[in-house]
Write a structure and sequence with these properties.
The chain is an alpha+beta fold. It is built from three helices and eight strands, in the order E-H-E-E-E-H-E-E-E-H-E.
């Protein structure tokens, strides 16, 4: 019997189409139900303005999950993209509202750069809505490319860009 290696992964969830909170909950529960995956922890839920989207676009609810998985990065990407579609996401694109968006932020200490997948997520350290909830789960994480602790990426201009929506940890319901 061969034991499959497990990896610790951090996923970012976002939703700006109602019911936003229910979308996050459904996504977390669906991820936990997938074979080869277990949700270990969930950050608080944060609300942030829609970045790089047209004026009047609804605000996002965001959350970061810590999971373990036996899936390799490509398999995990396939599963998360399939789940996005299952939960009502119709198109991919930065300037589009969405029922759910799932981004792979970190996959153990691996760096990956393919046409489909870049890990660590290339904008992780630039976005308060991913960085702050990530550090809430583990403030010792480092960028696997540079070795720099992510806590050093916190910026003064993050103040006011993010508000805690709820301390509720919906992933573990």
């Amino acid at each position: 019997m061969t034991l499959q290696q497990t990896h610790t992964v951090f996923l970012s969830l976002g939703s700006n189409l109602e019911p936003r909170l229910e979308n996050l909950t459904n996504c977390s529960q669906s991820l936990n139900a997938l074979t080869g995956m277990e949700v270990l922890g969930a950050s608080s839920i944060y609300e942030s303005a829609a970045l790089d989207m047209p004026t009047g676009t609804p605000a996002f609810l965001n959350q970061v999950l810590s999971i373990t998985t036996t899936l390799n990065p490509e398999e995990l990407l396939n599963e998360t993209e399939a789940l996005e579609k299952q939960l009502g996401r119709t198109e991919k694109g930065q300037a589009l509202s969405r029922t759910i968006d799932i981004d792979i932020l970190l996959y153990s200490d691996k760096t990956i750069n393919t046409d489909r997948l870049i890990i660590p997520h290339p904008r992780l350290h630039l976005r308060a809505f991913t960085l702050i909830p990530l550090l809430e789960l583990d403030n010792t994480l480092k960028n696997p490319n540079t070795g720099q602790p992510y806590c050093q990426s916190l910026k003064d201009d993050f103040t006011g860009t993010l508000t805690k929506f709820s301390a509720q940890r919906v992933a573990l319901l």
